[in-house]
Design a protein that fits this description.
Blueprint: H1 3-25, H2 42-54, H3 59-69, H4 84-92, H5 94-115, H6 121-135, H7 145-161, H8 165-176, H9 183-189, H10 195-224, H11 244-254, H12 263-269, H13 271-281, H14 285-299, H15 315-318, H16 323-338, H17 355-358
């Protein structure tokens, strides 16, 4: 069996182990929207800050004031979000922001139609439907940093697969200035750049990260200048929730929490099999990015960090559209192995086993 076909079997084994681990640890806890001691939710806080910015208020003064009044932590400085989204939504207004959000979802559908060019028409329609479905949230999600970062990173990943890495990097950098977790995507993407784009991609990423470092230092200075000694401190980020953590977060965001276990966990881990099919035929970047961030959710995220999973949505769930193809390929591989026939290489993967390479 070629190493490319082992991708499918390895991902299948990983999904089975993750599902069993969740079942062994007990039913996952599905996080609800967090309310601070002051009774304000995370989205409510971001909305209130954006409204004040739209009225001409200073972002940092209002962000620190509202977080303090409602019992949100102010230390370390990263507990105060970067001002990018509040500045944009505050100045263009809610309706324009909602229209921009709908445009972002439509743009992702178009990007992904081009990205998975080996997909059949039915698979492309399914990918589009899954991207739309996984994007749906309450209308006030336009104030949520992770929602926007997830949309930008979904488009960035699609552009990488469509062989437009520079455009992908530009969108990933935009996401970085919305939510700093986007740095993980940029770092994950660098080893997968095409050889002709590698030098420019590494230089561009280095410049972007340096610029972000400067912006983050300025952000830190603004926040720390306003924080008082008695202001609350975040409890830290080392949730150590295991596979049940990302399972519960994903299920809560895509409404699979209505499905009984272990089927719920199996459904939210199954997209990895679809992305394994992309690894066979195009690039392992989706598998690296999604699995890496799932590890972050399992190790670092607390139960009240449920919105973090939005960083990999909606692209992650689109992998479900390719699961039937992967299962058929697995069945075919198994039959050929039992018959003593070497498995066929996926078209276009560039290995010596392909008909094109032999011809």
């Amino acid at each position: 069996m070629t190493i490319h076909h082992r991708w499918r079997w390895a991902v299948c084994a990983a999904i089975a182990l993750l599902t069993l681990a969740v079942a062994w640890s007990g039913p996952p806890h599905h996080p609800m929207a967090r309310l601070a001691p002051g009774g304000l939710s995370d989205i409510g806080l971001y909305e209130a800050v954006a409204r004040q910015v739209g009225r001409g208020g200073d972002y940092y003064a209002w962000a620190v004031r509202l977080q303090r009044e409602n019992g949100f932590p102010l230390r370390p400085f990263v507990t105060v979000r970067l001002p990018t989204l509040a500045w944009i939504v505050g100045h263009i207004g809610y309706r324009a922001a909602l229209a921009l959000a709908l445009t972002a979802v439509l743009a992702n559908v178009l990007v992904w139609f081009a990205a998975i060019d080996f997909a059949r028409p039915a698979e492309r329609v399914s990918i589009a439907a899954l991207i739309v479905a996984a994007s749906i949230m309450v209308p006030r999600a336009v104030y949520l940093h992770e929602w926007w970062a997830g949309q930008l990173l979904t488009a960035a990943l699609g552009l990488y697969l469509a062989k437009r890495p520079r455009a992908g990097l530009a969108l990933a950098v935009a996401a970085l200035f919305v939510r700093e977790h986007s740095l993980l995507f940029i770092l994950a993407s660098l080893p997968f750049l095409p050889e002709r784009e590698r030098r420019g991609g590494w230089i561009g990423a280095g410049v972007a990260i340096a610029a972000f470092g400067i912006a983050l230092a300025l952000h830190r200075a603004e926040v720390t200048a306003l924080v008082l000694p008695g202001d609350p401190t975040s409890p830290g980020w080392l949730g150590l929730r295991g596979p049940a953590g990302p399972s519960s977060d994903l299920q809560a965001m895509v409404l699979f929490d209505l499905v009984p276990e272990p089927l719920g966990s199996l459904l939210v881990f199954a997209p990895l099999l679809g992305w394994g099919e992309v690894a066979v035929r195009r690039s392992a970047l989706p598998v690296a990015w999604f699995s890496g961030f799932l590890v972050v959710l399992a190790v670092l995220a607390r139960a009240d960090n449920g919105f973090w999973v939005r960083m990999i949505l909606p692209a992650y769930m689109a992998g479900l559209a390719l699961v039937p193809r992967a299962l058929l390929a697995l069945a075919g591989d198994a039959v050929r192995v039992r018959s003593g026939i070497r498995p066929r290489t996926a078209p276009g993967d560039g290995t010596t086993g392909s008909p094109a390479a032999k011809g």
